[in-house]
Amino acid sequence: MRTFYTEKFEAQQIAQIKSKKNIPDIKPGAQVKIGYSIVEEQNTRTQYFEGTCIAVNNKGIATSIVVRKLSVGKFGIERTFKIYSPLVASIEVIRYGIVRRAKLYYLSKRIGKSAKLQEDFAYLAKKKD
Question: CA angle at residue 73 from 69 to 78, to 5 degrees?
């Protein structure tokens, strides 16, 4: 059960994380490039995952996005990222796509050119103003 105090605490935590990291406005259909930290024995490195955002689950500090990347051939890879996690090093929006749905799970059945979305230039123009 969420109370006023938990929501206030989460808002403070989110503001603190946003002051350290640049987290852009992410919406379904956006082409995103996410850098996440991988720990191998004593080394840590950043690996990038680039794909289309097919879902955004807004749950306060536990906000997550589902990103689908088209791999070689006929299959795609879907991965869920918690955007406020310390393992997510960077999030970059490459472009925004035109969509009419909040969840784009129909894209997981498509391959090739049919899985691509048109770019939304109007959203970029509104965002710059």
Answer: 25
Contact 66, 53 (CB under 8 A): yes
In the numeric block, the tokens 């869920």 are attached to: 80
The pLDDT, as a whole number, for residue 56 is 95
The structural domains of the chain, with segments of one domain joined by +, span 4-128
C-beta separation of 27 from 102 below 8 A: no
CATH of domain 4-128: 2.30.30.790
pTM value is: 0.83
> Residue 18 to residues 2, 55, 86: CA-CA distances in angstroms?
22, 21, 12
